Amino acid sequence: MAKYIDMDNLKFILHEVLNVESLCELPRYKDFDKESFDLLLDSTKTYADNELFPVHREMDADPARYEDGKIIVHPMVGKLMTDAGANGTIGATFDYDDGGMQLPNTIYVANGHIASSANNHVTGYTGLTHGAAHLIVSFGEQVLKDTYVPNMLAGKWAGTMCLTEPQAGSSLSDITTSAKLNEDGSYDIKGQKIFISGGDHEYSENFIHLVMARMEGAPAGIKGVSLFVVPKLRIKDDGSLEANNVDTVGDFQKMGQRGYCTTHLAFGEKGSSKGWLVGPPNRGLACMFQMMNGARIDVGCTAASIATAAYHASLQYAKERPQGRRILSGGAKNIEAEQTTIINHPDVRRMLLLQKAITEGAVALIMQASLYHDLSVAGSEDERERYHDLLELLTPMVKTYPSEKGQESINNGLQIFGGYGFCTEFPLEQFYRDIRITSLYEGTTGIQSLDLLGRKVIMKNGATMKEFTKEIISVIKAADNYDELKPYALHLKNASKTLEETLMHLLQFAMSGNHERYIADANIFMELMSTVTIAWQWLKMATVAKTALVTGKTTYSTTFYEEKIHTMKFFFKYELTKISSLSETLKHPDTLTIAEENKAVFA
Amino acid sequence: MAKYIDMDNLKFILHEVLNVESLCELPRYKDFDKESFDLLLDSTKTYADNELFPVHREMDADPARYEDGKIIVHPMVGKLMTDAGANGTIGATFDYDDGGMQLPNTIYVANGHIASSANNHVTGYTGLTHGAAHLIVSFGEQVLKDTYVPNMLAGKWAGTMCLTEPQAGSSLSDITTSAKLNEDGSYDIKGQKIFISGGDHEYSENFIHLVMARMEGAPAGIKGVSLFVVPKLRIKDDGSLEANNVDTVGDFQKMGQRGYCTTHLAFGEKGSSKGWLVGPPNRGLACMFQMMNGARIDVGCTAASIATAAYHASLQYAKERPQGRRILSGGAKNIEAEQTTIINHPDVRRMLLLQKAITEGAVALIMQASLYHDLSVAGSEDERERYHDLLELLTPMVKTYPSEKGQESINNGLQIFGGYGFCTEFPLEQFYRDIRITSLYEGTTGIQSLDLLGRKVIMKNGATMKEFTKEIISVIKAADNYDELKPYALHLKNASKTLEETLMHLLQFAMSGNHERYIADANIFMELMSTVTIAWQWLKMATVAKTALVTGKTTYSTTFYEEKIHTMKFFFKYELTKISSLSETLKHPDTLTIAEENKAVFA
């Protein structure tokens, strides 16, 4: 079978870089240890090998679709839900009291990375069910928990999140789905929701939709939006199920991730769709953000996973494909020699190293953020807030960097295949199509960038940003212990200063009230800051690798650690260098994209 | 009908920027004038509106394919060949004596841009026929011209170029297709050719393949490769056609450009495939380069055209789609206000301006190169060589910039559509797939970059590069006449210096014999140099626009000219700034991608 993930890399990040087993010293995670983590990871890998990877290509060729009023999906969807329910994956991170096993989020996400690398078309089905159940557990009344969560965790019922409406995509303020209070405390939900992933199919007995809607008389805007649980089938007093008038009226055919159904749902059109409030009235967004933040990390993880699978496919191809000859001294080629495999061409190595730098850097960041998550939930009381804030700061980058740069990574992988990369007989073109959704759903890159610059970097008057800088500095200090790493430590130090100075420059606009100017180039700022962030992760990995080589305490081959240091250098030469130009753009005096100041343009 | 091209922009570039009608002063083009050029362009636009654009989407949905030994294509392929034959398009640039109308290449390419913007799945069929016929006209003996060219120009017979073999993609040195001399002077051709665009279908009576093959006893490598014309059906003495044992044995199903068939041909397997030598023995590549250079410009033009159509689709969507509200002073939004159309959001404007900057910059470069082509063919005797050399220098960038940056442009266009961009009901996902081939065929970006850095910039000991710099300086001088443009003139001057210094830095490696190091980052150099090149084109356009506004000699709206200046500024702020980082990478001391120096990596 083709390699789609390097388990050594994942375990290196978890154990040697993040020391994830230190979580087991915390009361919440005391029943785990390194061995039980590895056992889980390895069994996920076996399942992914045997079940998920083999159907990845056919799920693309025979996509999920709407036919005769029904959504048709691949049978693997049903098998995965059943298996995940049976082995406790769906609610693994939940409290024991809520039917979970109190698994650290970091291991849960690592498992997701393995599964999504094998097959990114199926992991959303269980992921959304996890998220929806978690939302009910966190904010729902006991009766809602009892009614829905057990069947969801058992993989019998599926969960979804219903935000988008035809007239309101990114603008959740403009949601018009209505909720009318009934005498029994339930609400009649009426409206249309689009782009609902995993919204319907024959393999789940029931669908538990978490729906954003507006109560009668609620204030305009996002402050009038509440959250409701709206099942496809409602539960009668005798426990039997009856239709709740949630109709699947169509689907969306997509360029990629075609095995993951995307549905159009109509609530309350043919009769009453009953829903029940989750969390306080008009506070739907605050509740939903819990699920959205999780989903954003999942999307980042999915993107990194698709790019990881693509990297291994192109690495294998580059090692096997003969083509051309080395360019020798003076520019000559020895035409009598056998063709070399293409991995020996500098440009192919550049593309492979770029893939390695992006994908492994992205995975490191995702795991770092997940560790912060665990520490914010179960760390020592006085540190929880700090880790929570760091997670908040990282989240838009965790979502965006793997999505945007993962596309670039796969693009380079496809290029390594030459013309074959464009053909359907090789998997790269599928990965290229699959990943393209990740910079769109759960908030586009534009939305994530507004979140990063407009909210996150200014959290607590910049205190969170300072904590983030401290994390970077501690890595710089550790790297500074090794002569080989000193130049890169200095490079990151300067990069961190560039980030800070650029942000200060932009903040002048915000402070003078010109918020539109402040935020106009948020995307460019995202690119700059996430490049520095990944450089931080790379220097951290390289320092750990160097320490292992120097002390001889190595778990994997010497080459493994040398490649880590090498790839860090690659990232610094080819990627971190970009921030000087990005800063130049951000500081440039021309204001060219603000409509009010440039009325003639696109008039 | 949706807009897919801005004819004003094309005519502005041709007439106001390049003054293409000055060509009509040259003897070769004396029968043309501005009006006849416009008449041709407008009639191409009408044809594209009525015939090509309407079938663009269905050619994707119902792709060209191999069934029962035959290639099935859309009937539009047949209609286009017939119509192009009837109106003289295929051989339009040929000499009168060869059945052409001596149309300047610039206008021919401009027509191709219009047609490819409407439908990029069909223009290759006529384009290859043009190129193959031109090769026979240029290098073939009279009997070959008489036998093949008239039917090709009439659109009855189609042409192809057959280079790639399964074991030899980019490495033409490794071609093994053989050519064995017969007593009658013909050759028996035997071998397999893959990725042959437009290689077979029911709408052309015959296919005239230009095949690279190796004569018995020829030297190893590219110096033993000759060029042959090998028809699908050979012509008997009585004029009737008989099978020439060129068999279509399969096809390639592709991610995009699915209406353009890509075939696998077998020569001489079931009997003798007769071919006739074109040009001198063992000089096949030199001859084929004529067709390849034309094809490379065609590919750049196709890429720019797909990106142009995508730009207009996303511009239209951005003007129509309401979503969200402006961010006002202090970061507030007026939630009571109606939603704004998304074109008013800075990030959407940024993406649109990026598309405009890339696509219009690319079209300007393509037309500039095409004008150099015409001047190299028909200009005053003493200038022909200079223009020939400038064209040689530009060609790899003309192929690569629109391909690589066109992908980025479309990627941004897709993003403007949000989730809809990923769905098949909107055209962006098709454009996104279609364009991806352009950085692969006719020499990948890697190959083009080796050509640029390894051959072109050092042509004639750097004299051509100096001529290129002169062209840039003349634009800087013209811009310097306007206060508004002075800062940008200075920016380009510095950028040109950065290019020069970076090249000098790299040349040290070549001069010390370390050619592999010199060439290792050719792709990064390509990015740097083509960014400077497009900045040159933008400053040129902006200066012409400024002059028109100042003198009042405007053909189009004031907004049109203001947008040109604005987009130049955008390119300089967001794109030209990138070269400082690219130069930093190119000058970085680490050598990380050379296999010999990093044996542990990817071991």
Describe, in plain words, how this protein is organized in 3D.
Two copies of one chain form a homodimer. Chain A has 18 helices and twelve strands. The mean pLDDT of chain A is 96. The first copy, chain A, has a domain at 451-603. The radius of gyration of chain A is 25 Å and the shape is globular. Chain A is of the alpha+beta class. In chain A, the strands form three sheets. A five-stranded mixed β-barrel of chain A has the order 4-5-12-7-6.
Provide the fold topology.
The structure is a homodimer of 603-residue chains.
Chain A: H1 7-17, H2 34-52, H3 56-61, E1 65-67, E2 70-72, H4 75-86, H5 105-118, H6 123-139, H7 142-153, E3 157-162, E4 178-181, E5 187-197, E6 206-215, E7 225-231, E8 233-235, E9 241-243, E10 246-251, E11 262-267, E12 273-278, H8 284-320, H9 346-378, H10 381-416, H11 428-434, H12 445-456, H13 463-479, H14 486-511, H15 515-520, H16 522-551, H17 558-576, H18 578-587
Parallel strand pairs in A: 3-6, 4-6
Antiparallel strand pairs in A: 1-2, 4-5, 5-11, 5-12, 6-7, 7-12, 8-9, 10-11
Instruction: Note the gap between the termini of chain A.
Output: 56 Å
User: Percent helix among the residues of chain A?
Assistant: 40-55%
Extract low-pLDDT stretches of chain A.
none
Q: Largest beta sheet of chain A, briefly?
A: 5 strands, mixed, barrel
